[in-house]
Write a structure and sequence with these properties.
The chain is mostly helical. The chain folds into 2 domains: about 210 residues, Up-down Bundle (Alpha-lytic protease prodomain-like); about 70 residues, 2-Layer Sandwich (Alpha-Beta Plaits). The chain has 8 helices and 3 strands. A 3-stranded mixed β-sheet has the order 1-2-3, covered by helices on one side. Helix 2 runs parallel beside helix 6 and helix 4 packs antiparallel against helix 5.
Amino acid sequence: MVKTLATKDAVSHRTHEIRRVLWIILFLNLAVAAAKYFYGLTTGSASMQADGIHSVFDSAGNVVGLVGIAIASRPADESHPYGHAKFETYASLVIGVLLLLAAFEVGSSAITKLSSGNYTAEVGPLSFVVMVATLAVNLGVTTYERRYAKRLKSEVLAADANHTLSDALVSIGVIVGLVAVVLGFPMADPLMALVVTVAILFTAYDVFRHALATLSDRARIPEEDVRTAALTVPGVRGAHQVRTRGTEGEVYVDLHALVAPEMTVGEAHQLADEVERAVEKSFPNVIETLVHIEPDDGHRE
């Protein structure tokens, strides 16, 4: 079935919403990164600087996401007949690579301080004010972005939300490290920077795991659920060879429908259209359904 105007409008609206969310998150991440990094630089806190660098990579990830969405929103063409939706997935892979680079930067800095024994962190009341304020922003951003990621079924927003959550957890670790410094354990600052490194690596793993699920054409909708939707159409006696693939936001469905052998070509074609509409009505993230009609004569491929 050719994609309807309503479906095109829905895809366009989804893209617009993802872009809007990414722009908002970008400006918030830049503000948080600047606050943590420059104050950490002023006080000599390795963990605060590391957390600031992590937030900078959050911002870079937002830019990558915006570029990826811009490409993914292009319509299907001769060289990409299934559209460009997977460029959103490629963008999330780039975010994963940026996370690995951030982990290297943060980890190497912490190891250098530990090996030299040069602990220079100066902790004052303002240190905690900066960290608590940026933590509150990160938690708010995570909640906001996750809600839209779920609503829009966006891999980029989901990956970025997980990244921001890890940033919030890292900030909690930094606060713990600053408390330890105040109590007389200056080594705690670079040690918490290493904790930051581990958190970033776990986040990168999660991003790669979700992206590879799409690129490996992992099934997006349970086969039985698609079959149930197809069987709601009168005249469909059975459905098999159900396959789904694509991104979470744009799913393609193939299935074989069994019909009465005496059905005419015209009747079978009309029935196939009804099955396509039934599947796409049941699953709003399905943008195209291909139905192969088979006679219910006791023989299957």
